[in-house]
What does this fold into?
Amino acid sequence: MIFLPLAGCSGMLGDGGNDSEPASVHRLLIENRTPENHTVHLQLLDSGEVSYWRSVEVPVTDADSDIVTGVKLAPGFPQPPGEYTLLARLDDNSDWRHIDYSNTSVPEDACFEIVVTVEDSTTLGFLSSTDVAVCGKQSAPSEN
It folds into this structure.
Protein backbone atom coordinates (compact mmCIF):
# COMPACT_ATOMS: atom_id res chain seq x y z
CA MET A 1 0.00 0.00 0.00
CA ILE A 2 1.25 3.50 -0.78
CA PHE A 3 -0.10 6.99 -0.48
CA LEU A 4 1.26 10.13 -2.04
CA PRO A 5 0.30 13.20 -0.05
CA LEU A 6 2.03 16.38 -1.10
CA ALA A 7 2.91 18.98 1.51
CA GLY A 8 3.60 22.63 0.89
CA CYS A 9 3.89 24.08 -2.57
CA SER A 10 4.33 21.05 -4.76
CA GLY A 11 4.71 22.81 -8.08
CA MET A 12 2.46 22.13 -11.03
CA LEU A 13 2.34 18.67 -12.50
CA GLY A 14 2.24 18.70 -16.25
CA ASP A 15 4.36 18.45 -19.36
CA GLY A 16 6.98 20.85 -18.01
CA GLY A 17 6.42 23.37 -20.81
CA ASN A 18 9.15 25.06 -22.83
CA ASP A 19 10.32 27.38 -20.04
CA SER A 20 10.68 24.80 -17.27
CA GLU A 21 14.03 23.55 -16.08
CA PRO A 22 14.84 20.39 -14.15
CA ALA A 23 14.88 20.88 -10.39
CA SER A 24 17.49 19.72 -7.92
CA VAL A 25 16.78 17.64 -4.83
CA HIS A 26 17.99 19.66 -1.85
CA ARG A 27 17.14 17.24 0.94
CA LEU A 28 15.74 13.75 1.41
CA LEU A 29 14.40 12.83 4.85
CA ILE A 30 13.10 9.50 6.07
CA GLU A 31 10.59 9.54 8.92
CA ASN A 32 9.82 6.40 10.89
CA ARG A 33 6.39 6.83 12.46
CA THR A 34 6.44 3.37 14.03
CA PRO A 35 7.85 1.95 17.28
CA GLU A 36 10.15 -0.45 15.36
CA ASN A 37 13.50 0.08 13.59
CA HIS A 38 13.32 -0.06 9.79
CA THR A 39 15.62 0.07 6.80
CA VAL A 40 14.48 2.12 3.82
CA HIS A 41 16.18 1.40 0.50
CA LEU A 42 16.28 4.40 -1.83
CA GLN A 43 17.05 4.90 -5.51
CA LEU A 44 16.93 8.27 -7.21
CA LEU A 45 16.81 7.99 -10.98
CA ASP A 46 17.73 10.90 -13.25
CA SER A 47 16.25 10.38 -16.73
CA GLY A 48 16.05 6.65 -15.96
CA GLU A 49 19.69 6.32 -14.79
CA VAL A 50 20.54 5.62 -11.15
CA SER A 51 22.09 8.76 -9.65
CA TYR A 52 21.71 7.79 -5.98
CA TRP A 53 21.29 4.43 -4.23
CA ARG A 54 21.44 3.96 -0.48
CA SER A 55 19.94 1.91 2.32
CA VAL A 56 19.19 4.02 5.39
CA GLU A 57 18.61 2.66 8.90
CA VAL A 58 15.80 4.70 10.47
CA PRO A 59 15.46 4.92 14.26
CA VAL A 60 12.21 4.31 16.10
CA THR A 61 9.81 7.04 17.11
CA ASP A 62 9.55 7.59 20.85
CA ALA A 63 6.12 6.36 21.90
CA ASP A 64 5.94 9.04 24.62
CA SER A 65 6.57 11.90 22.20
CA ASP A 66 3.91 14.02 20.51
CA ILE A 67 6.17 14.50 17.48
CA VAL A 68 7.87 12.09 15.09
CA THR A 69 11.34 11.50 16.53
CA GLY A 70 12.52 8.72 14.20
CA VAL A 71 13.93 10.98 11.47
CA LYS A 72 17.04 10.35 9.41
CA LEU A 73 18.58 12.67 6.82
CA ALA A 74 19.74 10.67 3.82
CA PRO A 75 23.41 11.41 3.04
CA GLY A 76 24.59 12.68 -0.34
CA PHE A 77 22.37 15.71 -0.88
CA PRO A 78 21.87 18.17 -2.49
CA GLN A 79 21.69 16.53 -5.90
CA PRO A 80 22.07 18.69 -9.04
CA PRO A 81 19.11 19.54 -11.31
CA GLY A 82 17.65 16.53 -13.08
CA GLU A 83 14.51 14.71 -14.17
CA TYR A 84 14.01 12.57 -11.09
CA THR A 85 12.03 9.51 -10.11
CA LEU A 86 12.32 8.34 -6.50
CA LEU A 87 12.03 4.62 -5.72
CA ALA A 88 11.81 3.30 -2.16
CA ARG A 89 11.27 -0.05 -0.52
CA LEU A 90 10.88 -1.01 3.11
CA ASP A 91 13.06 -3.57 4.89
CA ASP A 92 13.09 -6.90 2.99
CA ASN A 93 9.99 -6.18 0.91
CA SER A 94 10.64 -6.82 -2.78
CA ASP A 95 8.09 -4.23 -3.94
CA TRP A 96 9.61 -0.85 -4.89
CA ARG A 97 7.28 2.16 -4.58
CA HIS A 98 7.93 5.21 -6.74
CA ILE A 99 6.99 8.79 -7.44
CA ASP A 100 7.94 10.54 -10.67
CA TYR A 101 9.06 14.18 -10.53
CA SER A 102 10.40 14.31 -14.10
CA ASN A 103 7.41 16.22 -15.50
CA THR A 104 6.98 18.58 -12.55
CA SER A 105 7.36 22.29 -13.22
CA VAL A 106 8.89 24.28 -10.39
CA PRO A 107 9.67 27.98 -9.92
CA GLU A 108 13.06 29.14 -11.20
CA ASP A 109 15.88 28.32 -8.76
CA ALA A 110 13.55 26.11 -6.68
CA CYS A 111 14.38 22.60 -5.54
CA PHE A 112 12.62 19.60 -4.07
CA GLU A 113 12.61 18.60 -0.45
CA ILE A 114 11.32 15.03 -0.21
CA VAL A 115 10.19 13.05 2.82
CA VAL A 116 9.68 9.28 2.75
CA THR A 117 7.49 8.16 5.67
CA VAL A 118 7.31 4.71 7.24
CA GLU A 119 3.66 4.48 8.29
CA ASP A 120 3.64 0.85 9.46
CA SER A 121 5.47 -2.40 8.67
CA THR A 122 4.25 -2.42 5.04
CA THR A 123 3.37 1.17 4.12
CA LEU A 124 5.59 3.95 2.77
CA GLY A 125 4.40 7.46 1.99
CA PHE A 126 5.96 10.30 0.01
CA LEU A 127 5.71 14.00 0.85
CA SER A 128 7.34 16.70 -1.22
CA SER A 129 7.62 20.45 -1.45
CA THR A 130 9.50 22.99 -3.51
CA ASP A 131 11.24 26.02 -2.10
CA VAL A 132 13.21 28.88 -3.64
CA ALA A 133 14.41 30.37 -0.34
CA VAL A 134 16.13 27.16 0.78
CA CYS A 135 17.70 26.38 -2.57
CA GLY A 136 18.65 29.37 -4.69
CA LYS A 137 21.79 28.60 -6.67
CA GLN A 138 23.30 25.51 -5.08
CA SER A 139 26.11 23.19 -5.97
CA ALA A 140 26.38 19.42 -5.89
CA PRO A 141 27.89 17.72 -2.83
CA SER A 142 31.65 17.52 -2.74
CA GLU A 143 33.29 14.17 -3.50
CA ASN A 144 35.61 13.66 -0.50
In short: Confidence is low (pLDDT under 50) at residues 1-18, 138-144.
